[in-house]
Amino acid sequence: MRLHEYQSKQIFGKYSIPIPNGRVASSSGEARQIAEELGGKVVVKAQVLVSGRGKAGGIRLAKSAREAEDLSANILGMELKGLPVRKVLIDETVNIQKELYLCVINDRSMRKPVMITSFAGGVDIEEVSRTTPEKIVKIPINPLLGLRDFQARDMAAGIDLPRELWKSYIEITHNLWNVFVDFDATMAEINPLVITGDQKLVALDGKITIDDNSQFRHPEMTDIRNTDGESPVEIEAQKFGLSYIKLDGNIGCLVNGAGLAMTTMDMIYLSGGTPANFLDIGGGASAERVTAALRIVMLDPGVKSILINIFGGITRCDEVARGILSALNDTPARVPIVARLVGTNSQEARALLKGTSLLSASSIVEAARLAVSAAEGGI
Ligand code: GDP
Ligand code: MN
Predict the structure, then answer these.
(1) What is the pLDDT of residues 321-358, one digit of tens each?
(2) I need a surface site. Which of 31, 55, 318, 348 has the fewest CB within 10 A?
(3) Which CATH class for the 232-375 domain?
(4) How many Å apart are CA 234 and CA 245, to the nearest integer?
(5) Closest ligand to 89 CA?
(6) CA angle at residue 48 from 46 to 52, to 5 degrees?
(7) Residue nearest atom 7 of ligand 1, based on CA coordinates
(8) What pTM value is reported for the model?
(9) Which CATH class is domain 96-223?
(10) Residue 243: pLDDT band by 50, 70, 90 thresholds?
(11) What pLDDT, in 10s, does the model give residues 86-97?
(12) Mutation test of ligand 1: which of 59, 60, 93, 100 has the most ligand atoms closer than 8 Å to its C-beta?
């Protein structure tokens, strides 16, 4: 899960990393009010999960609250790299003297977190790392020991940071490390970390990515789980512990086990069709979860037929059948459904589904072919 700049900065603020005063707005009127409170001179920043907002026109300086309102109206109507802007951050402007770079990221090749810093931060950091990699200092961190003081000092020295800023810089590196650890982040970045005209360090931008596998440890984060990048259906699926990924095809799939889900998708392709989603209901799925899964697959308007492929082991086919029945009871199927239920209690499942409109198949090949021709209107 990637956090928006304003969410990342709120966290920075709680961890004593200096940030500019500011607040997020969803309308230009709200933006104007915030700008007034901040004294008029503000920066209006599009809150979308893309990088390079500055270069794409998503960051504008306003000299008055009135201008902030106009700019916000403009930015709130924009799409940046395909994503609509739903919120703008209104921050007081900062007198920038120098833009630095600071980040902690999991480095897979080193198999540990690495702190990365540079005196040449800002919007061209990728260019810096490509053309003058010597300007970038990387410090591998032992995850059990955490960031050590000497490492923070090495970084300050490595980028030739003016002496008077060391204390503040070292505090910021420790605080950023704490954010990284406490939030199970895979990345926590400040770019730019600016030196202001009055010789202070301020985090002007923030980007935190949180490991989705840690979601259960952070119930407090559910509220800020971002919805721009993920489809509402995917979010709904997560609530039921289903791994659902939307694809472009027209055959909805409901399968138990990731391996079988992949095989099912392959079989659909081999039969000349295209899957509309990847959906693994997991092992030992309950009727409730099956009901939710079927409902979710049916939410996709692109779905023209559904293929249910269950290999019963711990998962019991009769339980799955009960889930299907309950889903159909709530919302009658608007498309043909093909079911292949084999393994544990498959007889009982078949008995339960008898008399329904479900098309039953005994082999995966037959099931895929049926689903493909059903999607094409052949059934
Ligand atoms: P990004 O392009 O998505 O990384 O967005 P940033 O928040 O990093 O902003 C890009 C650039 O806009 C920064 O590097 C700054 O040069 C500039 N910028 C952002 N906030 C301010 C501000 O408050 N004052 C001034 N003068 N420039 C800013
Ligand atoms: Mn930035």
Answers:
(1) 999 999 998 888 899 999 999 999 999 999 999 989 99
(2) 55
(3) alpha beta
(4) 7
(5) 1
(6) 80
(7) 205
(8) 0.73
(9) alpha beta
(10) confident
(11) 999 999 999 999
(12) 59
